[in-house]
């Protein structure tokens, strides 16, 4: 099993507590952006936005993030086909995070897949149970 598979499909906890530090060092001025499905209110994913990605999202009505690993604009679904149509964009009280209210164009938001080969609805598909992860 590759390192990515261990993190994405495993049950051992490997939380990346240095993610924000690395993201800021590599990407500059960014804020968190949460995507929430409009009808079910399910939290689908967390990404980051900078001014460029937020402007693109607002103009094109599609959830768009700044890829902190590739340091480039990331239109969610451009590669996978799992687009998130932007219904509304909210900002929190301190204006340091964004909430995208989205409509799924297909079946899921996560880049990982269920055993049946379909993309998972949400990136939050495991829960912590004591010192292990369990699939929900």
**How many strands?**
8
Give the class from helix and strand content and strand pairing: alpha+beta
Helix content: 10-25%
Q: Give a quick account of the main beta sheet: strands, pairing sense, barrel closure.
A: 4 strands, mixed
Series of H and E elements = HHEEHEEEEEE
Strand order of the largest sheet: 2-1-6-5
How would you describe this structure to a colleague?
With 136 residues, this protein is of the alpha+beta class. It has helices at residues 3-9, 19-27, 51-60, and strands at 31-37, 43-49, 64-67, 72-75, 84-91, 98-104, 126-129, 132-135. The strands form 3 sheets. It has a 4-stranded mixed sheet, covered by helices on one side. Strand 5 and strand 6 form a beta hairpin. The longest helix has 10 residues, at 51-60. The protein is globular and about 40 Å long. 21% of the residues are buried. The mean pLDDT is 93.
Question: Key terms for this structure?
Answer:
136 residues; single chain; 19% helix; alpha+beta; 4-stranded mixed beta sheet
């Amino acid at each position: 099993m590759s390192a990515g598979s261990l993190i994405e499909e495993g049950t051992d906890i490997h939380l990346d507590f240095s993610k924000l530090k690395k993201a800021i060092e590599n990407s500059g001025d960014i804020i968190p952006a949460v995507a929430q499905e409009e009808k079910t209110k399910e939290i689908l994913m967390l990404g980051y936005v900078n001014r460029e990605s937020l402007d693109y999202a607002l103009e094109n009505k599609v959830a768009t993030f700044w890829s902190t690993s590739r340091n480039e604009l990331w239109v969610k679904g451009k590669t996978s086909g799992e687009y998130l149509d932007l219904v509304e964009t909210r900002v929190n009280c301190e204006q340091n995070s964004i909430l995208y209210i989205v409509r799924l164009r297909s079946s899921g938001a996560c880049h990982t897949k269920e055993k049946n080969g379909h993309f998972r609805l949400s990136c939050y598909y495991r829960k912590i149970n004591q010192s292990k992860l369990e699939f929900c």
